[in-house]
Amino acid sequence: MKVNIELNGGEFLKAAKSSILISLAELLTEQEEEVKDAVKTVDSVKKQKKEVEKQPEPQPEAQPETKAVTIEDVRTALRKATNAGKQAAVKQLLADFGVDNLTKIAADRLPEVMEKAVLL
Q1: Is residue 57 part of a domain?
Q2: If DSSP states are collapsed to H, E and C, what string results for the chain?
Q3: Which residue range is the domain that position 28 belongs to?
Q4: Cα-to-chain-centroid distance, residue 110
Q5: CA pair distance 97, 50, nearest whole angstrom
Q6: Which of 24, 25, 57, 91 is the most exposed place for a label (fewest CB within 10 A)?
Q7: 45 belongs to a structural domain
Q8: CA–CA gap between residue 33 and residue 47 (Å, rounded)
Q9: Same structural domain for residues 48 and 79?
Q10: What is the average pLDDT score of the chain?
Q11: Is residue 61 part of a domain?
Q12: Nearest in space to 77 (alpha carbons), one of 102, 107, 109
């Protein structure tokens, strides 16, 4: 950038010219520092963007397919346990749920019963 100021006159004009030039230089120096700071900020943002782009996108965890547990499913699991000689464990499991037979268990508790039945 080039700035020319031409003034003719005495010492006053020379002093004014000098003062104006000094003020302009100070202003340009301030502007230069602000531009440098802005460039640093832009560079930092670009660097962060590249780092984020390098990171793999998190994959959603595969949710196992859950089918509704039916009373027949639980009955089959309990039958297998009974056939394996675990009649006492089956009766205790039902008692733990406050019932004496499977049909008295609420449908919303069947998944919980099933979890325990397969462990027998």
Answers
A1: no
A2: CCCCCCCCCCHHHHHHHHHHHHHHHHHHHHHHHHHHHHHHHHHHHHHHHHHHHHCCCCCCCCCCCCCCCCHHHHHHHHHHHHHCCCHHHHHHHHHHCCCCCHHHCCHHHHHHHHHHHCCC
A3: 1-52
A4: 34
A5: 56
A6: 57
A7: yes
A8: 21
A9: no
A10: 86
A11: no
A12: 102
How many structural domains compose the chain? 2
Helix axes of 71-83 and 110-117: crossing angle, nearest 10 degrees: 20
> How large is the C-alpha radius of gyration of the chain?
42
Distance in angstroms (rounded) separating the CA atoms of residues 69 and 67: 6
Task: Quote the CA–CA distance of 86 and 77 in Å, as a whole number.
Answer: 11
Could you tell me if residue 66 is inside a domain? no
| Nearest CA among 4, 25, 7 for reference residue 16 | 7
Mean local confidence (pLDDT), 28-56? 89
Q: What is the pLDDT of residues 58-110, one digit of tens each?
A: 777 766 666 789 999 999 999 999 999 999 999 999 999 999 999 999 999 99
2 and 43 together in one domain: yes
